[in-house]
Amino acid sequence: MATVVAIGTLDTKGAEYGFLRERLLEAGVDVILVDAGVLGEPTITPDIPREEVARAAGNEIERLVAAGDRGAAVETMSRGAAAIVERLHQEGRLDAVVGMGGTGGTALVTHAMQQLPVGVPKLVVSTVASGDTRPYVGAVDITMMYSVVDVAGINQISARIIANAAAAVAGMARATVPEQVESRPLIGASMFGVTTPCVTKARERLEEAGYEVLVFHQTGTGGQSMEELVRAGFIKGLLDVTTTELCDELVGGVLPAHQKRLEVAGSMGVPQVVSLGALDMVNFGPTDTVPERFRSRTLYVHNPTVTLMRTTPEECAELGRRVARKLSAATGPTALFVPLRGVSMIATEGQPFHDPAADDALFSAVRENLGPNVELHELDTDINDPGFALAMADRLIEMLGEET
Predict the structure, then answer these.
(1) I want to staple 224 with a disulfide (CB 3.0 to 4.6 A). Which of 4, 139, 154, 301 is the partner?
(2) Strand order through the sheet with 96-101
(3) Tens of pLDDT, residues 54-110
(4) Are the C-beta atoms of residues 100 and 34 closer than 8 Å to each other?
(5) Alpha-carbon distance 306 to 300, whole Å?
(6) CB–CB of 212/41 below 8 Å?
(7) Which burial class, exposed, middle or buried, applies to 25 when counting CB atoms under 10 A from its CB (0-12, 13-18, 19+)?
């Protein structure tokens, strides 16, 4: 029988977790209830008490209670809950994990969830599910269900929501993944709408060569998810066409790269073929959300919810330096492909982001700062030219062949 681990603060959410546990048992799964509460006594009996959770974080519950610092207590119990779920998963006693809460409870349970591998079902019922979920979801496959009302008692609304959550996570825990007919080496590829033709053509070539290609949308978390799978050993090579998240990190857009973007594969010696895809743009939301200081810049309405801003020559020079510096630190096979006629679909001649001065600044900074360990391939095409895509794919195939 599948087992669902439920993590919660049973001093404040005991009734809600008792209701959740009943619904899970009715759905035909076993339940391990973990108490991550601190400052009050639990109102229902857990399977793993708060004392054990605190010790898993190297602390004692009595010390946390005496200190009376809720923030410090939540941080400690987050680490303890993470250690508990990791152990249960390693022991084969966790098929799915579920939690509920407001901002504090969501942060606690999702921190534990983020320690589990991709593919392990993770569901949280949260008051913040309709807001900025990036801090809670991170780079893993956490499912968030909006609670509609606060997780504060069982009422006509919360009962329906919690029952739905129980049914969902029980179903996920029991689900089986069909066996793959063949297991092909995995390649990670980075894509944006304005680099889609390039990635599509390269993906087709890589699949013809016997690889399975995972494509990641470069939305800030997309790059992070891709590199977390590299770190975990799933991805054997990178076709990192689209490094646009670096623009938002530099300028202040809404889809910023994480701190280690473009560094993970290099640090692990994983073969990587990289380009400068969409370094011509910074992302914002609807036009009226673009910060006032940028209103006079070159803007392009991609769709009603996305406004793009052209990067300047000064910003492009800094982006070139950052790309060169990160790639030059690589310990494995690394190649950088430069499309001299445009780094995105809208940066080519006649398109709204065509800016030769900005492109020259980007390309010059790359040339001047790239280390001798990185191959530099400059092609007189735009990034979406089929020849450019095939050149990148073929070089990665060669690199992977050289590694075996």
Answers:
(1) 139
(2) 30-35, 3-8, 96-101, 122-126, 142-146
(3) 999 998 888 888 887 777 888 899 999 999 999 999 999 999 999 998 888 898 999
(4) no
(5) 9
(6) no
(7) middle
Q: Buried b vs exposed e over 109-133: b needs ≥16 C-beta within 10 Å? A: bbbbbbbbeeebbbbbbbbbbeeeb
- Nearest residue to 9 via CA among 66, 60, 78: 78
222-240 residue pLDDT tens:
898 899 899 988 899 999 9
Residues in the chain: 404
Measured distance between the N- and C-terminal CA atoms of the chain, rounded to whole angstroms: 41
The tokens for 361 are 């600044």
Query: How distant is the alpha carbon of residue 337 from its chain centre?
Result: 25
158 phi, psi to nearest 5 deg: -65, -35
**What's phi and psi for 217, nearest 5 deg?**
-75, 130
Per-residue model confidence as pLDDT tens digits over 225-282: 899 899 988 899 999 999 999 999 999 999 999 889 999 999 999 999 999 999 999 9
CA-to-CA dists, residue 241 to 46, 326, 377, 399, angstroms: 49, 15, 13, 16
For 181-236, give the DSSP string. Answer: S--PPEEEEEE-GGGHHHHHHHHHHHHHTT-EEEEEE-SSHHHHHHHHHHHTT-EE
Q: Which domains does the chain have, with CATH numbers?
A: 3-174 (3.40.50.12020), 186-403 (3.40.50.12030)
Please give the single-letter amino acid code of residue 375.
Answer: E
